[in-house]
Design goal:
single chain; 379 residues; alpha/beta; TIM Barrel; 7-stranded parallel β-sheet; 14 helices; globular
Length: 379
């Protein structure tokens, strides 16, 4: 019989310690919770009925897995004189398109998001059309009123999760502006054509995060961990750009949180091995995921465990397609046992998936992971 709660088990492993067994935490944060609720994506992601954080928490409890939530957040209001408005500009049984307008005395920006029935929303028109011309306006949108930062929603999410798992308080590290630039490719042109201005923005972003970090440290919220959800930190920009723009903030922030006794964890799907090397050798990061294998990533769990297992807790790395989506239970069991054998020794290992499980991943395959951890993952 297990001697730890799911939350205790996860925290112990994330600290590099030895729990009662290897935690079982496949990444089911986004599409599977919607499938389990049986509602269109816009019910969850737009109307919040229920919000995605609640759908995920319920998903964790349904499977009995060790929860690792990507959905904790702080609220920073817009500055005085600014406002956001949303409007539905198209809808039918299969799709909803929502336009969001940001306005302030300096002007107007717009974004459009498309919600397909069975997929999370994707921006189909992003905020920035002209990086130089809209720079000051975008800064007004991006940098809110830190004096009014609020952690109430995080406390609510953490309370609802309870002992079923841990909830990350999310902080996005600086990167090229691919998430905000229209079209995406323009973010790379900005780097070369407007490097000084973009670097100034990145410096301001880093300072902004450090101010938020201090607000967190000075608060009474006691987050389970700080989560850096930097998908594609190398895949969506080069190693050199990552070192220039993303890594300095990671180094500074992990130092702040380490001194405060707050755990930190970094997610970077795609290529990650180079980032693992830097994080293990030059930062105070506690945990890293998802350590994807080729061809989606470039990580070898056994090698990383041998080289960096004493410095970083490792979370990964079962392939989400070839294994979790397409294999039967026996195949999943075999691959999960292999991961446990490679990562278990000495603790500091969480059995997970190499990024997000697809919405049609068989329930039986997720239940099988938990069975494997309980049978083969005991210490």
């Amino acid at each position: 019989m297990n001697s730890m709660t799911n939350k205790e088990r996860m925290l112990t492993a994330m600290r590099g310690g030895i729990p009662d067994r290897v935690p079982c935490s496949p990444d089911t944060n986004w599409t599977i919770p919607q499938r389990l609720k049986g509602v269109p994506s816009w019910d969850i992601y737009y109307y919040g009925n229920p919000p995605i954080w609640k759908a995920y928490n319920d998903c964790v409890k349904y499977y009995g897995i060790d929860g690792f939530s990507h959905h904790g957040y702080y609220d920073i209001p817009l500055k005085k004189g600014a406002e956001l408005k949303t409007e539905e500009i198209f809808s039918n049984d299969e799709k909803l398109i929502v336009k969001t307008t940001f306005s302030c005395p300096k002007g107007v920006l717009t974004q459009e998001e498309t919600y397909l029935r069975d997929e999370p929303p994707t921006p189909t028109k992003k905020w920035i059309d002209d990086f130089v011309g809209e720079y000051e306006l975008f800064c007004e949108y991006f940098f809110g009123d830190l004096d009014k930062i609020n952690f109430d929603e995080y406390k609510k999410i953490q309370s609802d999760m309870g002992d079923a798992g841990v909830v990350g308080l999310c902080m996005l590290l600086p990167t090229l502006l691919t998430q905000w630039r229209q079209p995406t490719e323009s973010a790379f042109f900005d780097y070369f054509e407007h490097h000084e201005l973009l670097t100034s923005f990145i410096d301001r972003w880093t300072d902004y995060l450090l101010q938020i970090a201090q607000k967190i440290v000075d608060s009474d919220i006691n987050p389970d961990f700080i989560f850096f959800p930097n998908s594609g930190a190398i895949t969506m920009q080069s190693e050199d750009i990552m070192k220039e723009y993303t890594f300095p903030a990671l180094k500074k922030l992990t130092s702040v949180f380490k001194k405060a006794g707050i755990l930190t964890s970094l997610h970077s799907c795609g290529k990650e091995n180079f980032l693992v090397e830097l994080a293990a050798g030059q930062t105070d990061l506690d945990c890293i995921d998802p350590l994807e294998v080729a061809p989606m990533g470039d990580c070898n769990l056994q090698e990383i465990k041998q080289k960096h297992g004493d410095k970083l807790a490792l979370k990964g790395n079962l392939p989400t397609t070839t294994v979790m989506l397409f294999m039967d239970e026996k195949g999943v069991e075999k691959e999960a046992i292999k991961c446990i054998e490679e990562g278990k020794d000495g603790g500091g290992f969480i059995l997970s998936t190499g990024d997000q499980c697809g919405r049609n991943t068989p329930d039986a395959n997720i239940f099988k992971l938990l069975e494997v951890c309980e049978k083969y993952g005991k210490y």
